[in-house]
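Ticket #4471: structure output looks truncated?

Reporter: J.K.
Steps to reproduce: submitted the chain below (290 residues) through the standard prediction queue, then opened the result file.
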Amino acid sequence: MDATQFSYAPLALALAHVVLGVLVLVLAKYVKDWLSPYSLDQELTSHDNPAFGVAVAGYYAAVTIVYLGAGVGHPLPVDDGSFAVFAALGYNVAWATVGILLLNLLRWVMDQTLVSELRTSNEVVANRNVAAGVLEASGYIAAGLVLGSAIRQPGGTVVTTAALFALGEVALILIARLYQRMSGYDVAGEIRGANLAAGLAFGMTLVAIALLMVKATSGEFVDWGRNLSFFAFDTVAGVILLRLLRWVTDLLLLPNASIPEEIVRDRNVNAGLIEGVLAIGIAAIILFLF
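Returned output as attached by the reporter:
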């Protein structure tokens, strides 16, 4: 291979990754259509269901996150020959396919366990509840972040990836349920009542919790004892920091407002957005700087 040919190799590989990414998104659409009791095209176009559109957008975002996790964690070997390149591309697509199936499974799991007495999928399709759509979209993105992080961990295997993903997902659901108890209002009732402010606050907080799980599952896999210790420490410390810093920032940035009152009484979307953005911002700071 001469220098001219070699210079085009990285570009060709990048294009291959982009094309495969688009094909993965198309596959995700057909898998969801196949596994759902309703038609995606009908809900998105004929029924013009905005809640469904928000939920599906979160699904596609989660699929993209999983595909990026596979690609970043297992980069293409430019110098190792065409077979190694095709093997790496196939590996990434295989992980993305597994991710698509897991995301569809987790939609059902989170629908049953995340919020008591609330079936998000029914609220989205039957009641066109945008607040529930935001929550379902956030659930997809949160699951995608946890799975993408587990996939990209260096030094791991399929077994360690599956175990860390399961741990992260269980912790995500438990912490989210704890958040509902500490929120100061009935999260399920507000979302069932189509309170968009509550849906935004809780949904974005769910993504923030997922970022803490990314922190807990990041780093090279060394052995079960050490990695589980890091997971436990990062999870507990992250939740405490998130709760403490959220209280401080709410006090400083919204000194004349009670977040629960703004969300429940006034259905103030601004309050829900600020609550959610602060949660994600603080979780991102913990992830990258703590």
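Triage note (M.O.): checked the attachment and the full token line is present. The CA atoms of residues 14 and 114 lie 38 Å apart.
Status: closed, working as intended.
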